[in-house]
């Protein structure tokens, strides 16, 4: 057999095809199913059991072994605890970014090396290229599925050990390959949402871990129009679930004021308080070296967002300032601003 590669198999079609393609190329492929959540792991909201069955069925058709490993303790310590701290501080974190850096490409990578692998693979839509001795992270070939945003905190050491077998393909082609290979999950619906929450109502989930601290819902003019249940339960740009009715345009969360425990809301999707031309961000992570201060790039402040031209300025304390050519909607503290140079993902930072 050839070089051993351990493939993270989630039960979905993308990771199954990734394993299939590597097997066809002659690699010694081992599948690894990661269980990252145990609390309240039931079939109503959490699909872990079903996903493991799907991963095992796909591995059987491909003709590879599948090992299940439990990273729930590492996930709770490295990802979930930080997730709760950020929400308690009034920010909106992105646990998928942290999960990739701490679990899928750290705990998983370490475990794969113990299994005798030289590299790991996942079903992410992204690409890695080596250039002048450095590894670059590139967008996936499918612009609708590109996942480089979630991978922007990966390091040189991590990128040197990873393969993205479907990064050069579009989703339709991946499903076609799966169907022609008779993979049992070829038509399985893509998973959405945060892995440990599943499809359950988000506020219901948070309410189990964070205390409710009600306060006033205010307009920018200082008019009180309602009562919120706690700032942690809302995010910038939120429209549904605020609890304000009435005539006129829809209401949106525009700001949080921890000092007065006030939630500031505005009417209309394009209200000026929802638009920002600049932001500051901290805890920057650069993949192959930091961009020059004052350089021009493109960036996005949320995953499902088009890139926008911007100028990046770095300060001595590691903080960055990003000035956009066009106003950005609902820039949210705790989310990531991710920078690009064409197809190359440079890295990013946490919006402060």
Describe the model.
By secondary structure, this protein is α/β, with parallel strands linked by helices. The protein has helices at 13-24, 48-62, 72-88, 95-114, 156-159, 171-180, 202-207; strands spanning 4-8, 28-35, 65-70, 119-121, 126-131, 134-139, 162-163, 215-218, 224-228, 251-257, 262-267, 275-286, 295-300, 308-314, 320-329, 336-341, 344-351. The strands form 3 sheets. The chain has a 6-stranded antiparallel β-barrel. A 5-stranded parallel beta sheet has the order 3-2-1-4-7, sandwiched between helices. Strand 8 (215-218) and strand 9 form a beta hairpin. Helix 1 packs parallel to helix 2 and helix 1 crosses helix 6 (171-180). The model has no long low-confidence stretch (mean pLDDT 91).
Question: Which key phrases capture this entry?
Answer:
six-stranded antiparallel barrel, Elongation Factor Tu (Ef-tu), domain 3, alpha/beta, SH3 type barrels, five-stranded parallel beta sheet, globular, 17 strands, 3 domains, 352 residues, 30% strand, Rossmann fold
In oligomeric terms, what are we looking at? single chain
CATH architecture of the largest domain: 3-Layer(aba) Sandwich
Highest-level CATH class of the largest domain: Alpha Beta
- The first-to-last residue Cα distance is 49 Å
Largest sheet: 6 strands, antiparallel, barrel
Number of domains: 3
CATH topology term of the largest domain: Rossmann fold
- Helical content (DSSP H or I, runs of 4+): 10-25%
